[in-house]
Write a structure and sequence with these properties.
The protein is α/β, with parallel strands linked by helices and about 300 residues long. Helix content is about 45%, strand content about 15%.
Length: about 300
Amino acid sequence: MHIPVLKNEIIKYLDPKPNENFIDCTFGEGGHALALLEAIEPDGKVLGIEADPELYKKFQEEGEIQNPKSKIQNRLSLVNDSYANLKNIVAERNFGPVNGIVMDLGLSSWHFEESGRGFSFREDEPLDMRYNPQANSLTAFEIINSYSEEEIARILGDYGGEGFSRIIARRIAEQRKEKPIRTTFDLVEIIWSALPPRYQRKKLHPATKTFQALRIAVNSEIENIKRGLVQGAEVLAKDGRIAVISFHSLEDGEVKRFFKRCREIRIFEIINKKPIIPSDEEISVNPRSRSAKLRVAKKII
């Protein structure tokens, strides 16, 4: 079952009022959007943006919108696109005023458990890692099997913070000379062989950082976050709030720096100086929330 991260905190800090309008930039399985729709009854609307065409289709076919007793059919507008195109999406749908925006930068449980695209190192799947295979031709397979050893090392270091990036990249380059590296388990085996034994016994799985880095590179995540934040600030109405949930330091750093710049030029007021993190109770129910950090800002012009 999908459990939206920091749902109560999102509602608290976005402070939705009846009949206001919100954008969920990372709709996923609809957890945050549905909570907002409930808070902005009777006439408030949510524009949901979902980059993955399968998740988009899944919600349309199985989600709350299909419930004949649901009150959201006319109040939820769902779009299959990237939040990197936020400004155009809002303009094309004449959506507004925008009183609040939520961005949850983590993967949904569906991506790990059901997509079959190699997001999880615990399942033997093709090395794909694309959110939208229809719009993106670059796969993790291509990076692993055709990028230079130096470029792979850079990706693992820059996007994953992997301290053994050069060793892992070297092992990848050696292995692919013999045969292509096709699946997640192929890659995990290489990573295991590259790390010292003491790192194989740590709590964090040795493949975590490599898989994170590849996913970020495949989907241009950092570039899209930057674009989405800029456009979010542009479309947000005065006194509107933007809430961003990040899951690793690279994402959180981008959000923190952007909010700080906007405060300096008097566009934003930062609501929480320190990031909001999940309670122990939430982590016990949803362990994937443990690394989540929430930052919120308010537009003041």
